[in-house]
TrEMBL record:
Coiled coil: none annotated. It comes from Pseudochelatococcus contaminans. GO terms for molecular function: glycosyltransferase activity. Its EC number is 2.4.1.-. Residues 297-328 are annotated as: Disordered. SUPFAM superfamilies: Nucleotide-diphospho-sugar transferases. This is Rhamnosyltransferase.
Length: 328
């Protein structure tokens, strides 16, 4: 029977939440890999190793903040590393530090993916249904696929958030790498659209819920009542940049491109209202959108560690088929 490993990407994590995450999943996986995009103390590492109990845990410090896409690649590269802890791995489940999976979630998702295969589907990825971890956080949105397919208490979705999602390793090798040049935001969206275009499908399990913390809470927009995640202007700029970059991708459906344009315009106005006329966040959205249209991607300004050490990153072996089209 093929095994599953877990990969977690961290950046200045709250160690108690991260400890609970490791403890919740360690008993269901063959190994845990943590890519630490910020330095982790020996004491914090010891706490996490204790939480993992007998499950091997590999803490990988790339020496700088390399973002999510490259961190995911380092995790996926472990599967082909030849290390005994990663022998015969057929699935990888990804997490970021903001998720709190319930006990049994990993095994339940793998079983659901196997059930989908038996019913004739070709799943590349299945995730839980994300819910708000606290009343002050907005739950990530889930968008059902236009096919409307619902199988085995799961529904086909255009994409699922990467945190909590089980990825089929064989499908990953076929679909290709996560976009390292996106750095953060929309990496999961782009990859799932690419999976659909390659003949695979993406799913969320209706009955498997996972609490997740999106941003730093939410604000309610005056007059219209929208709830928006609290994000810094630079983070919103990266979000808008990567959404705009999706407009250049041939595998992204036209309806999503139309939605991106309309929704980003509405968000810009909504943040202006929520910030009572202050322009920092709306301006970042506009500038980010322009950068994405121009193909100016890569690590955002200020993302590097204050005093980075030399990077010896695991080289990704599954280059994205669309990456060249986005670089100018």
């Amino acid at each position: 029977m093929q095994r599953i490993v877990a990969g977690i990407v961290t950046y200045n994590p709250e160690i108690p939440i991260l400890r609970d995450l490791v403890g919740a999943i360690a008993g269901e996986v063959a190994a845990v890999v943590i890519v630490a995009n910020s330095p982790m103390s020996a004491g914090d590492e010891a706490v996490l190793r204790e939480a993992a109990d007998d499950t091997p845990i590999h803490i990988d410090d790339p020496g700088d903040n390399i973002g999510l896409g490259s961190a995911y690649e380092r995790i996926m590269a472990r599967v082909d590393s030849g290390d005994a802890d990663f022998h015969d791995v057929g699935h990888v489940i990804l997490f970021d530090q903001d998720s709190s999976p319930p006990a049994g979630m990993v095994s339940a998702l793998v079983a659901r993916m196997d059930m989908l295969r038996r019913m004739g589907e070709h799943p590349a990825l299945i995730g839980p249904t994300p819910v708000s971890a606290t009343p002050g956080h907005k739950a990530p949105s889930v968008y059902g696929h236009s096919s409307g397919r619902s199988v085995a208490d799961s529904r086909a979705v255009w994409f699922a958030i990467s945190s909590g999602s089980v990825i089929d390793v064989a499908a990953f090798r076929d679909v290709g790498a996560f976009r390292s040049d996106f750095f953060i935001d929309a990496i999961d969206i782009e990859w799932c659209f690419r999976a659909w275009s390659a003949g695979y499908s993406c799913w969320t399990a209706n009955d498997i819920l996972m609490p997740h913390r999106l941003g730093g809470g939410h604000v309610t927009v005056p007059l219209i009542g929208w709830k928006l995640p609290v994000q810094s202007p630079p983070r919103l700029g990266t979000y808008a940049r990567n959404q705009a970059a999706l407009l250049r991708a041939p595998h992204v459906p036209r309806h999503w491109k139309v939605r991106v344009c309309l929704y980003l315009a509405a968000q810009t106005v909504a943040y202006w209202l929520a910030d009572h006329g202050r322009t920092a966040r709306p301006t970042s959205l506009v500038k980010g959108f322009a950068a994405g249209l121009a193909g100016r991607l890569g690590p955002p300004k200020g993302s590097a560690r204050a005093a980075p050490t030399p990077v010896t990153a695991a080289k990704g072996r599954h280059p994205s088929p669309t990456r060249a089209a986005h670089e100018q």
